[in-house]
Amino acid sequence: YGKKSSLLLAALSCLAIVLSPAASEPPSEEAPAPVAPPEAPEPARVVYRIADKGPDDLPIELTALYWTQKARLAPGILLLHHLGHNARVFDDLARRLHQEGYAVLAVNLRGHPESEVRKGGGMNWMRFELPDFQALVKDVDAARACLAGQREVDPLHLGLIGEQYGASLALAGG
């Protein structure tokens, strides 16, 4: 038997699966209805500090949205947005991850809408330069430490997900 025979056999197998009676029959009346996953709670607003100080010589405090888990030692996911966005771009993804058992922290990066408790982080995302990138890497490190420090999070099981520029930060700070 050659290559043509093997391909024909594979094609007939696929056709048999598609044409099987179970695939063409309507669903049984007794089939259980799908159960919707429980709704994720609204996130808590979290404030975390970074090592840098602002122009007022006080530590810079940033905000994040946190979807907690009831389970002890749940894996954690840190979500990093793109330039000009904020943590809310991840609401749907964060809820889905929460439903899958993850504790999720979506950060508001320095210099972005809704990011700082007090203004003065010294960054404007519209005039972004290398020192700004380095500052954001520090923000990611502080956010990761914040997530790892939550009592219900397993600090050995953390993941980072970034949207465009946030992905670069995940790679640089991760």
What this model shows, in words?
This protein starts with a helix and ends with a helix. Helix content is 33%, strand content 24%. It has helices spanning 3-18, 21-24, 91-99, 130-148, 165-173; strands at 44-53, 59-67, 74-80, 103-107, 153-162. A hairpin with a 5-residue loop joins strand 1 (44-53) and strand 2 (59-67). The chain has 174 residues and is of the alpha/beta class.
What are the salient characteristics of this protein?
five-stranded mixed sheet; alpha/beta; 5 helices; disordered N terminus; 174 residues
Topology (elements, then pairings):
Layout: H1 3-18, H2 21-24, E1 44-53, E2 59-67, E3 74-80, H3 91-99, E4 103-107, H4 130-148, E5 153-162, H5 165-173
Parallel strand pairs: 3-4, 3-5
Antiparallel strand pairs: 1-2, 2-4
Helix pairs in contact: 4-5
Biggest sheet, strands in spatial order? 1-2-4-3-5
Gap between N and C termini: 52 Å
| Low-confidence sequence ranges | 3-24
Number of helices: 5
Overall shape: globular
Spell out the helices and strands N to C.
Answer: HHEEEHEHEH
Mean pLDDT: 76
Would you tell me the structural class of the helices and strands? alpha/beta
Assess the beta-strand content as a share of residues. Answer: 15-25%
Tally of strands: 5
Largest sheet: 5 strands, mixed
> How big is the Rg?
23 Å
Helix content: 25-40%
